[in-house]
Design brief:
Structural class: alpha+beta
Strand order of the largest sheet: 3-2-1-4-5
Radius of gyration: 13 Å
Order of helices and strands: EEEHEEHHH
Number of helices: 4
Length: 102
């Protein structure tokens, strides 16, 4: 399973493609692609986001479902979703709580 992530061009914030085709600030709202057709659809939406100068660095992230939530497999992506591992008072984890962000 995969989700599509990017950085919002206006402020560099890590964002994830949501089911409504918007760019969500939290991974909890990410749309999950379970097959190649869904990935192709998401990739096209990502290309539109790039063309509209909304996002940059659009990439798929491998995830696993844990308790109904998409959790990135790679540590790098978990950090992007939550914030720094040595300062829990910074990043998305600071305003959402660590469980909600990652």
């Amino acid at each position: 399973m995969k989700i599509l992530t990017a950085n919002r061009l206006v402020d560099g914030e890590a964002v994830w493609l949501a089911a409504d085709h918007s760019w969500a600030e939290t991974i909890a709202h990410a749309d999950v692609a379970a097959n190649p057709d869904a990935e192709a659809r998401m990739e096209a939406i990502g290309a539109q986001g790039i063309a509209a100068n909304l996002v940059v660095d659009v990439n798929f992230v491998d995830v696993e479902m844990v308790d109904g939530k998409a959790v990135p497999i790679r540590l790098r992506e978990r950090i992007r979703a939550a914030g720094p591992t040595n300062r829990r008072d910074l990043g998305k984890q600071a305003w959402l709580g660590a469980e909600s962000a990652a």
